[in-house]
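This part of the workshop introduces the protein records we will be handling. An example says more than a description, so a record of this kind follows.
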Amino acid sequence: MLLPVVIYYIVFLYFPMYGLQIAFKNFTPAKGIWGSEWVGFKHFISFYQSYYFWRLLRNTVMISLYELVFGFPAPILLALLLNELRNRIFKNLVQSVTYLPHFISIVVVAGMMVDFLSGDGLINQLTGMFGIPSVSFLIVPDWFRSVYVSSGIWQGVGWGSIIYLAAIAGIDPSLYEAAKTDGAGRFRQIMHITIPGILPTVIIMLILRFGTLLAGGSLEKILLLYNSTTYETADVISTFVYRRGLLQMDYGFSAAVGLFNNIMNFILLVSANAISRRINNTSLW
């Protein structure tokens, strides 16, 4: 049973690492990987010294921090609130409504955002009723991060709460009964039983999130939402790699930038895991 999974990872994840060497070569498809000229760390140095380096790094980190600060706690809060609902019909309705956006294609979500946030879109029509001036949100750089992260929360909060609801279901019910006997109300039960009970799961998910801190969100979604007027805040490392590698066909340079990004994510993941293991004995390995 394990063999197909092992083969999948070897063929599609480990074997392609052979091509990472083009990050150190002036790669041209006609010459192939072995025939291309070896240039060492030229692409890495060029990226570091480029005009775009600090802007890309800042935007990538800022979008990830927005997601970490606002997006990461959202499914936890939703799971805690759903757990407190006693009306099963209403609870199932809320779960269904919050789960559904997860199954909507990113292309469809991006299209909805473009329609709703345009100068004459639904949002501006509603705010215009209160005398608020119209704003074309997707062409104003200062609005991009908020729009991107808030739409991501809407799409993923319900689906993300499933793992925390499962963790809550694993808490021993006798702890709640003992707390009630001691006079603890609902809020104290959440603070002293529910949250400590799901804390190991929260920490594991947080460590995994640190492993994608420099991913800068979903590449497809950013490509669908950003434009040249919002590059100042929307252009991240992954979109830069896409433009430089696929559109400009500079494969060696884009591979170097992508390798740099993945190495930094790996360092962050290992560091977060080590810190968590030392502080509270909870870690991935």
Summary: The CA atoms of residues 159 and 228 lie 32 Å apart. The chain is about 70% helix and 0% strand. The longest strand covers residues 25-26.
